[in-house]
From TrEMBL:
Listed GO biological process terms: DNA replication initiation; regulation of DNA replication
Protein location: Cytoplasm
Gene name of this polypeptide: dnaA
One Pfam family linked to the record: Bac_DnaA
GO molecular function: ATP binding; DNA replication origin binding; lipid binding
Entry's free-text remark on domains: Domain I is involved in oligomerization and binding regulators, domain II is flexibile and of varying length in different bacteria, domain III forms the AAA+ region, while domain IV binds dsDNA.
Subunit structure: Oligomerizes as a right-handed, spiral filament on DNA at oriC.
Keywords carried by this UniProt record: ATP-binding, Cytoplasm, DNA replication, DNA-binding, Lipid-binding, Nucleotide-binding
Region of interest (Domain I, interacts with DnaA modulators), ranges: 1-109
Residue ranges, annotated region (Disordered): 105-128
Name of the protein in its database record: Chromosomal replication initiator protein DnaA
Gene Ontology CC terms: cytoplasm; plasma membrane
Chain spans, region Domain IV, binds dsDNA: 384-508
Positions annotated to bind ATP: 209, 211-213
The organism's taxonomic lineage, starting at the top: Bacteria, Bacillati, Bacillota, Negativicutes, Veillonellales
Length: 508
């Protein structure tokens, strides 16, 4: 298990055992995995502030170590740091960072200058002021000094004003956080609070329609809210290439260089296209632009459909620079996240939706968020035409074009699983839900809980409620026991997989 997968698994368990407010305010988006030493059984987590580090260390270290042990399978110490502090004396500096996350050492911070001199080549749109990047501390409060600004400089007649091209709907408020994007979101919020301090460049990759562009634009909106005078440029790699080619034809490459190399933040969407074709001159130009911005400590964010190592025609010198920053993946959202997204959309549209109806959509549309939104719009249209609420029968009819195309993908319920387990092990429902703990009852009960988690995607509390109001920790323990049994007993694993396949084949 790599570092990101480990932390995502721990967060999923923390969400089940902590109150929602505690999880949201202290853990979700505020803590990032830093390193894990297998030799020392030591997991180091990076916190946003010293106050957060001290508070979580004091109150929640025991819980963190418990969920770490459950995720890793052996006792694990957990230590919290802030990335700007040095590790305590005597602590090992060894790290086992996952391939998908590269944490460069941070240079020592220097105090913000009392006066900043800006080269005359800088130009910004008329009516705006120029933002100059000092060393921005990640403060424990809201009293951090704002960056120094200089009086507005008129834009030159032959230069294009900065147009950030940000989508107004792509904000953090509209972005649903789940296990698939939690680490990427945490890094994005850290950048929005203090650009070019820890994660530069920030490289986000994943399949189409998973929210990479949304998250990048959300960083931009938050940066402009925190630092209104920033020169922020958001483009696609194709835009960069086309604009450079046009400037060559117009014999105006110097204007192009001033425009791109004097920005404070550069966002490039679909960076993988930079590796295509024979546009060597544009690749060379981008390389020098990257170096200039990095040298000047300007924030860069890139999105791609694949990690840097998989862009075959990308120059090695650029690939290594991308990998020297923060590289993180956004994966397809899990069932719980898809359901949360649908709920948010329903609330925004002020539409009453049955939970079973939303669960059915989420279970049958799992590829990406764009397809999920298309299915949701189709359901709204059906509800509008029939002038009814969104119910399960309505949803089944509305998105039958999806379920028909995928051979009626199975939507599995907890009741189906418990019924199957009772029949398979020849026990009655009352015994399965009761308190009897003999092996002939306890093992089928644990298997049923494990299947409910794996096949339905329901949360631990929801499953516990379905099993006669049991606590979510009981469900977590049951799932952990079954996973251990799977690892140790290959015959049990085969038998379990056979049962789960039989359940997947049950007709609605």
């Amino acid at each position: 298990m790599d570092l990101l997968s480990l932390w995502e698994k721990m967060l999923a368990n923390l969400k089940q055992v902590l109150p929602k407010e505690i999880f949201t305010n202290w853990f979700e988006g505020n803590i990032i995995p830093y390193s894990y030493s297998e030799e020392e059984n030591l997991l180091i987590l990076d916190t946003m502030t010293n106050f957060l580090r001290d508070y979580v260390s004091k109150k929640y270290t025991d819980i963190l170590e418990t969920v770490a042990q459950d995720a890793i399978g052996r006792p694990t110490r957990v230590q919290l740091i802030t990335s700007q502090e040095k590790k305590p004396a005597g602590e090992s500096q060894s790290e086992a960072v996952a391939e998908t996350i590269t944490l460069p050492s941070k240079p020592a911070a220097t105090p913000a200058p009392t006066e900043t001199v800006v080269p005359d080549t800088h130009s910004v749109p008329s009516g705006q002021t120029e933002w100059v990047q000092p060393e921005l501390p990640i403060s424990d409060d809201n009293t951090a000094p704002m960056p120094i600004v200089k009086e507005a400089v008129p834009v030159k007649p032959d230069e294009t004003p900065y147009n950030n091209n940000l989508n107004k709907d792509y904000t953090f408020d509209n972005f649903i956080v789940g296990n698939s994007n939690r680490v990427a979101t945490a890094v994005a919020k850290s950048i929005a609070a203090a650009p070019a301090q820890k994660w530069n460049p920030f490289y986000i990759y994943g399949g189409s329609g998973l929210g990479k562009t949304h998250l990048m634009h959300a960083i931009g909106h938050e940066l402009l809210k925190n630092f209104p005078n920033m020169r922020l440029l958001c483009i696609t790699s194709e835009d960069f290439v086309n604009e450079f080619i046009q400037c060559i034809q117009d014999k105006n490459t110097e204007s192009f260089r001033r425009r791109y190399r004097n920005v404070d933040v550069l966002f490039v969407d679909d960076i993988q296209f930079l590796g295509r074709g024979d546009k060597e001159s544009s690749k060379e130009e981008f390389f020098h632009t990257f170096n200039k911005l990095y040298q000047d400590k300007k924030q860069m964010v890139f999105t791609s459909d694949r990690p840097p190592r998989d862009i075959k025609k990308l120059e090695e010198r650029l690939r290594s620079r991308f990998e020297n920053g923060m590289v993180t993946q956004i994966e397809p959202p899990d069932l719980e996240t898809r359901t949360a997204i649908l709920r948010a959309w329903a609330e925004k549209e002020n539409i009453t939706c049955d939970l079973d109806a939303l669960n059915y959509i989420a279970a049958n549309v799992s590829e990406n968020i764009r397809k999920l939104h298309g299915a949701f719009i189709r359901v709204l249209l059906e509800a509008s035409q029939s002038k009814s609420n969104v119910t399960l029968p309505l949803v089944k009819h509305a998105i039958h074009y999806i379920t028909d195309a995928q051979d009626e993908k199975k939507y599995i319920t907890i009741d189906e699983i418990t019924t199957y387990i009772c029949q398979h092990y020849n026990i009655n429902y009352k015994e399965l839900m009761g308190k009897k703990k003999t092996k002939d009852i306890a093992l089928p009960r644990q298997i049923a809980m494990y299947m409910c988690r794996e096949l339905t995607g329901n949360t631990y509390p929801h499953i516990g409620t379905a099993f006669n109001g049991r606590d979510h920790t009981t469900v977590m323990h049951a799932c952990s026991q079954i996973r251990k049994k799977i690892d140790k007993d290959s015959h049990f694993k085969e038998h379990l997989e056979k049962m789960m396949n039989e359940i997947r084949g049950v007709d609605n």
